[in-house]
Amino acid sequence: MELVYFDWLDYLVFGTMLLLSALIGVYFAFFASKKQNTTSEYLMGGKTMGMLPISMSLIAST
């Protein structure tokens, strides 16, 4: 059985995705114009999502 390890390109893609995710989180935490101040707004998404994103989320999670 051959062991397979990450190559430098795999580490580069993984690190880039991790950095991009962190930058998006920092942006929405500190610089977003509309904040979610309560847990209800956070958990319910501010009740501003349309039917298509909610449907796609439900389909993907089942």
Automatic annotation (TrEMBL):
Main location: membrane
UniProt topology in membrane: Multi-pass membrane protein
Transmembrane segments: 12-30
Keywords: Cell membrane, Ion transport, Membrane, Sodium, Sodium transport, Transmembrane, Transmembrane helix, Transport
GO molecular function, one term: symporter activity
Compartmental location: Cell membrane
Family matches, as PROSITE patterns: NA_SOLUT_SYMP_3
Superkingdom of this protein's organism: Eukaryota
GO annotation terms (biological process): sodium ion transport
Keyword Transcription regulation attributed: no
Gene Ontology CC, one term: plasma membrane
UniProt-listed PANTHER family: GH10366P, SODIUM-COUPLED MONOCARBOXYLATE TRANSPORTER
Protein name (record): Sodium-dependent multivitamin transporter
Organism: Leptidea sinapis
Organismal lineage: Eukaryota, Metazoa, Ecdysozoa, Arthropoda, Hexapoda
